[in-house]
Give the backbone structure.
Amino acid sequence: MKTLLTFLFLFTINANIFYADVYICDSKGAKKYHLTKDCRGLSNCKNEIIKKSKADAQKLGLTLCGWED
């Protein structure tokens, strides 16, 4: 039983990380997604900062911002 609970706990954490919302600068040149809206990497965004699922951001070819590695 303890093993099953551990598995479910770890699965839930990993699922939440994969499906978590991320933030991107809504511009054609955007290459990164950000874990927080206050990320230093978004400070130069001249357009709207929008929220997307991490999966959708990755489908667009965006990668994690270097400030948040």
The mean pLDDT is 83.
